[in-house]
Amino acid sequence: MLPVFGALLLTLPLMWSPSGTDEPTWSMSAVLIYVFTTWVGLIVLALFFGMAVRRWAYHWIDAPYAPTDDREGH
Amino acid sequence: MGSLNTLVLVCLAYVVLLFFVAFVADHLAARGKSARWMRSPLIYTLSLSIYCTAWTFYGAVGNAARSGLEFITIYLGPTLVMVGWWWGLRKLVRVGRSQRITSIADLISARYGKSHVLAIGVTILAVISVTPYIALQLQSITLSFAIFAEVDPDSRFSDTNTVFGVAVGLAAFAILFGTRNLNANERHHGVVTAVALEAIVKLVALLAVGIFVVWGIGGGVGPTLDKIDSSPIGSWQVDSGRWSTLIFLSAAAFVCLPRMFQVMVVENEDERHLRTASWAFPLYLMLMSLFVLPIAAIGLQIMPESTNPDLFVLAIPLSLGQENLAMLSFLGGFSSATSMVIVAAMALSTMVSNHIVMPIWLHRQSRGASVSGDVRNVVLYSRRLCIGVIMALGYLYYRLTGGGTALATIGLVAFAGISQILPALVGGLFWRGATRNGALAGISVGFAIWLYCMLLPALGPGLLSDTVMLHGPWGLSWLRPHAMFGLDGIDPMVHAVFWSLSFNTLVFCAVSLVGFPSPLERLQGAQFVHVFEHSAGPRGWSGSVAQSEDLMVMSQRILGAREAQAFFDKERLRQGDRGTLPEPTPSFLERLERELSGSIGAAASHAMIGQIVGGSSVSVEDLMAVADETAQMLEYSNRLELQSAKLEDTARKLRDSNEKLTQISAQKDSFLSQVSHELRTPMTSIRAFSEILRDAEEMPAPDKKRFAGIIHDEARRLTRLLDDLLDLSVLENGQVSLNHETGDLSEILDRAVSTALTGAEQPMNVVRDATPETVMVASDLDRLAQVFINLIANAQKYCDAVKPRLIIRVQKFGTGVYVDFVDNGSGIPTEHQQTIFEKFSRVSPEKAGGAGLGLAICREIMERLGGEIVYLRDKGGAAFRVSLPIAIETGE
Question: Does the ipTM surpass 0.90?
Fold first, then answer.
């Protein structure tokens, strides 16, 4: 769900775009702040998701060809 | 200050440092002592940063200066892909690892039944679309040299020479780095570590410039934001089509780019690294783009108009006298370019050598893999050669386009080209119905449209004339490269991406749906789509005849003597340490094939083992052939089964008739004894009474009369019996003469009923319905009456009900009439129903005095009269149906 949610958030600025008129538009700095805030939000969510995966799918990696041992990553 | 010379020196020193790092890392890895940090998710994440090339480093600022925030889409796409790793990338990496995939072409080929054609197609597509990208790196390095040359008063800077030098240098670099060891799956620890180092350098460089610009020039965050707003790019104006297309495109390219595939899938040490990378890599991207807009805005403000915005990152520190910062920034750009070129060249050369050079070479070695020359060297040489050729292509592209185009535009051309793989890739991973032909057709169509709408126009006006651009080829306006099918007025990039990917996907799905995948494709499709359910090897070898020595010789040539020996030793120990070489068990062959496929690709290694194992090999195709044969045999056995069922049926019929025959024979026997008895009883009494009459001289007259009467009766009985037998025999022989006439059915029935019941002690109740009986029948009326009499007399004789009753029902059908005789007795037992119409058949001999000829005679009569008599089951009591033709109204 995260990528879809993120994609929606990131296409949101499109609606602020002026449609050919000379109306007062959003300033670049505001959009900049918005985009970066969203970005950070996504990163934090991904971080939490990664931690969650670690909990509920402890053994999700059972690749028989993994050349590394299991000492790391846990 | 000899700025340019210093720069070259710094570059060289930096390259030496990279070499050193790579060498140490390789060395440690080879001794199996690779430090923990070398295998950490951090290195993996950093190695992913080759996504950020010189295009990012220089081009992003240039892009931002030209079109505002749009540059950021290039980083948002990959961010979304990484954030959704659980759904997509995890599967990709798992497939890549379980199938020992060496490149994106290998992956596509393996998914679609190890198709060589597809592998070659993807390889060519990759080479064509990555070439502009490599040209881009050449251009950026050259431009950065040029800007240093501008401030260096005594430089003899030549554009052409620099480009050439850079190209040669990068090629050498890539060859030395990338083709040191052969097995692409042994993972290039050295390269990855060096790339990670470069990732840090470029991040630090860009951050340093950014911090300098924001706090050194801009005066803090707030004032910088104000400056951004007041700059020419200060208002939010974006083409929504471009915005979303670019996000999508960069996401697609992130997955499909050969170099990204190389570091993300091939060099992946551990799937769990994805978990870390899923947030760390977006973070890296965010940091990389954090200062882009400020640098662009401030650059536009303070730099002269003539400065190329692509080089603001360098030009700003240089113009403000920050030589060291500029140097760091230059190193950042240099890092971006070199790491990208090395990995891209490595990935491409692997693809080209595995899918184009090696198959051709193997094909030419008709004597077979085990006796051919040293494959190991051939592979390495071909890869080196490929790197050289790829760099040469990049150089040519640069010369051809004149290096004038903005960096970002070139990058987008490459992105759109490589994204043509996406439908086949995603379809292959998630849709089992995807077929080789579908993938091939989709990629071809997408590629053609991309070539026509994007690459050729980008190559400059020389290749597509203005007429074609404005009015379409041959004057077909709907084929204009920037307005296909009348879709005019949108951005050319969006236009090309839209049409190429839509048609690509459409054709891919359509062809896949129409066609049917081959068995191997279906198998591989299942392996890919359900990779988490079974990560087992994809195919089996049966090597009972395979020569271990031959395998050993071949493996030595591909893996190298020591590695092969080690591999075989390990295998021998695994099998329980018997003999000097391991037995070629299927599992061993499978492992060996996978090992080899790391060097020369899945299809080639499969083919090579196939050559050695030879006739005894059991590939999936063989298995499928066997399966087909099995299906045929199954069909054959089905047919046999059918025939045997028929035979059984016949046998059953035979058995039935045999049973019937036996029954008849038994009946005949019993009849004979019955006839003898019947004949004997009257004979005896006739003899006895005639003797009495003869011998007794004085006998009273009444006695004499009585005895003579008995003799008379017995003689009549005998005559009747003989009449019946005679009648039947005449009927059976067809010698009977029939007297055809037309009569009323009800009259015949009247006569029959009265005749049959005459003399009966208790005549049974006969129920009739007069209306349907008034029908004219054309027949031998006497014979017909005989049949009816017989049936009625039988009912009278055998009906065992307390109040016996016979229903005679007449009903018309078609051209005839049914006459049913149904009584209310217990009927004829089932075992006798079959034989009642046979001669000599009697249901209960003890009860009736007849000889069992009545019904047989009836049947014969009805046959002669063109009718039929059958026994009706389940009617309550005994039920016979006589069917006979009715008279034609006009006739006779």
Answer: no
